[in-house]
Design brief:
The structure holds two protein chains of two kinds. By secondary structure, chain A is an alpha/beta fold. Chain A has 15 helices and 14 strands. In chain A, strands 2-8-7-6-5-3-4 form a seven-stranded mixed sheet, with helices on both faces. In chain A, strands 11-14-13 form a three-stranded antiparallel sheet. In chain A, helix 4 runs antiparallel to helix 12. The radius of gyration of chain A is 25 Å and the shape is globular. By secondary structure, chain B is an alpha+beta fold.
Amino acid sequence: MKFLPNSDAERRDMLAAIGASSIEDLFATVPSAVRQAPDLPDPLSEIEIRRFLGGLASKNANARDTAFFLGGGVYNHYVSAIADQMLYRAEWLTAYTPYQPEVSQGTLQSIFEFQTHVCLLTGLEVANASLYEGASALVEALLMAERLSKGRKRAVLSAGIHPEYRETVRSYFANLGLEIVEVPLGADGATDPRALGAAVDATTFAVAVQSPNFYGVIEDWAVGSAAAKTAGAASVAVVAEAASLAMLKPPGEGGADIACGELQSLGVPMHLGGPLLGFLACRIEHQRQIPGRLVGETLDAEGRRAFCLTLSTREQHIRREKATSNICTNQGLMALASNIHMSLLGKKGMREVAQQSHAKAEYLKGRIAATPGYRLPFSGPTFNEFLVEAPPGVDAAALLDRLAARKILAGIPLSRFFDSRALPADSADRRRFLVAATEMNTRGEMDHLVAALSEVRA
Amino acid sequence: MDDLHYSESHEWVRVDGEIGTIGITEHAQKQLGEIVYLELPEVGHVYNADDEFGTVESVKAVSELYSPVSGEVVEVNKSAVSEPGIINDDPQGDGWLIKIKLSTDEEIGKLMSAEAYAKYVSEEEQSK
């Protein structure tokens, strides 16, 4: 059986057509020093390769076989078997932003429902059909705010925004001539309102705050919105743990102009850190600056309910280099998964997920705080994730490794998000780690974690 | 024929003393189709000839608006912003877009007369 698309004769013909005598010739411009053939092992049979790759895969720890308390932007929430099964339907497998949209009514309907869910969760009026993930959603929200400001150059970001999101913003802004000002957190772990007020001026186009923030602390959206309003800037609300939206005040009610972030928590498995699912929503008066696709509801020629892509005139395929954004796609399959998941859970289910996650995290937080040597650096209220500081002399990364060996994935060391060389050996940041809980954690697991923390310390 | 001056990017200017009123042509309106959104500058903005001063969005496309002349914006047509359909209904009358205080009277001569513009449009059509 032939697996390779070209025959030797076809290759000879193609080489002759371009005047090359061998395939090697095509790589002549690549210096031979960097052209070393990789040292690959001999071919394996299908049975052997399954055994080999299965062995590699089993080296990964997974959330099923461990006590799992990792968060930091990706959360271990339950996804129903029904949602999985729906996703496997062949009609959905090619779910992608439709390029012949109106004949794809099912896809459009699902996107429209997804947008509706996002609007309900954020308390805003218009949501797009999704973006790749939270970090680029924040970038798109900021660029949108910059367009709305017509010429302002400064974005004010809370230091409580996920460090990887902020890094992504820095990458984009580096070549756009836009400035970033970061505002530190106060002793409670929430963005310092005074520092925020002082950072905002007439050149500011956006004030962005994340809640719950990267350290798990719940922020008051109104603080960022008030600072934005005084400067005539857009208030941008960032959400990395979307399950919280079922319990906390929605960004729209807190005065946000744009909400953005990550919806992985609502129906997308953790995978190995991706694909994730970004979202962006805004007030209706800003809809012409929203990036990406929008599905609208309309009536067809016979007066029946139908769906269409709307405001496409802003987009790249029509407006070319003058488009509002380079985004002209969406995270189709993940948005579909999330829509199915949210429809299954409903209001009541989503609230229960949020309440259970919160209640379990509160239990765990209380027990860790009562464990000798461990402390909680921040006093502000949290949702389902919180920062823990290990006793002096205990390096968080090393501690977590020891727990992982006992099948407890207890948290994420903060040192992972900083240049670790810049952190002094026994500094507080080296001893700090984030712990998250969801509805998936049992009391037994949590008690086990607490016991292990005190043992490892001793 | 009329007293308007026409640009190759399908805008017109009517001069009254030192004030030039600017809009899009009947031909442009027809090409765009139903206009749904209009973005205009604020009073006080200063433009050079051929600068972009706004956008007009129809159900088919978004197009940039270019000022045929240099000067400062002294008035914008707020009714066209709130009801862009009047650009379709009366592009060379009630559907005007902005008024500019001309910084020079030398640019007007470079624009086309109604007759020249009609010829320009028919040539443009044929070359398609």
